[in-house]
Amino acid sequence: MIRSDVLDWLEEAKEEYATALHLFNAGRFGHACFHAQQAAEKALKASIILYKRLIPRSHDLVELDNEVKELLDLAEDVEAGLPELSAYYTQARYPNAGLRRPSVEIGKEQARRALKLAEGILNAVARVLT
Predict the structure, then answer these.
(1) Number of folded domains in the chain?
(2) Which pLDDT score, from 0 to 100, does residue 130 have?
(3) Domain coverage including residue 98
């Protein structure tokens, strides 16, 4: 039986993904990218909490994936996209943190990729946890 705290992290990951989709549909692409990153981060942390019994402090998706790489079966394109998705933790929220105006400069295609990557991570973690 999966511990309730692990399921809480997974459910919050799903909530972040739903928020990202809502923002994408509203044309708020930068914010959609940030919430997609959060969905991926929380999903990865759910699997780390389950298998390592600790809550990592990192927001780096590559680092988090490395903690459970042997357990998750991420698609090659999802794993390759982790650095891009990880960067949205700061780049999608702060002016001049890579982009001058993220709300203007992050477009639909970036948000579409971010959602696809987050979905791939959510699906891989869900397979492990169910």
Answers:
(1) 1
(2) 76
(3) 4-129
